[in-house]
């Protein structure tokens, strides 16, 4: 525990913030912690808050929660890995924190909907893991997930741009979106070729944990 706290302090976290993340020794505990943070509805415009700001303000959306999860993994001795899931132009990307158990990949994921959440470590490749999100990645009944990125190791980047940064973490967001991405749809397969989800699926997708602003 003290080693994890020391790592958190080295990354720039306050003693209280470092202590709270040091207790998250497993991916399951990290996901539980992420789930307890209220959803950031961004009432005042787009945000991309750092780990320190999320812990201070107690609000997060997907990429903000992924920063927190990656930081907790780093403190616990795991690699702080993120993956960007790229959507079609009319939808938004989703970012998850990756972990491995043996040969298999899993993901920490925060979403306001019930479907784009934790993934157990049962996937042999990042493509397999990404495809597990495909059926529920929907906007107005249309499936919109198109690409997935390489795993992005945050140890390569200054913690000041994602752990302690004040305001919008633009540099880190640009790193995520500019990373190498791979197509999920087969060649010569257009988004229009995908069957829209059924009405009952659309109804379930409208379920949210926290009310979205009107």
For the record, what CATH class applies? Alpha Beta
Overall strand count: 9
Q: What radius of gyration results from the CA coordinates?
A: 17 Å
Q: Structural class of the secondary elements?
A: alpha+beta
Q: What is the overall number of helices?
A: 8
Mean pLDDT: 95
Biggest β-sheet description? 7 strands, antiparallel
Characterise this structure.
The protein is of the alpha+beta class and 214 residues long. The protein contains 8 helices and 9 strands. The protein has helices spanning 2-10, 15-22, 27-36, 51-57, 62-75, 126-131, 170-178, 199-205, and strands at residues 81-87, 94-101, 104-108, 119-123, 138-139, 142-143, 145-149, 152-153, 181-183. The strands form 2 sheets. Strands 1, 2, 3, 4, 7, 8 and 9 form a 7-stranded antiparallel beta sheet that branches. The longest helix is centred in the N-terminal third of the chain and has 14 residues, at 62-75. It is globular and about 55 Å long. The termini are far apart. The mean pLDDT is 95.
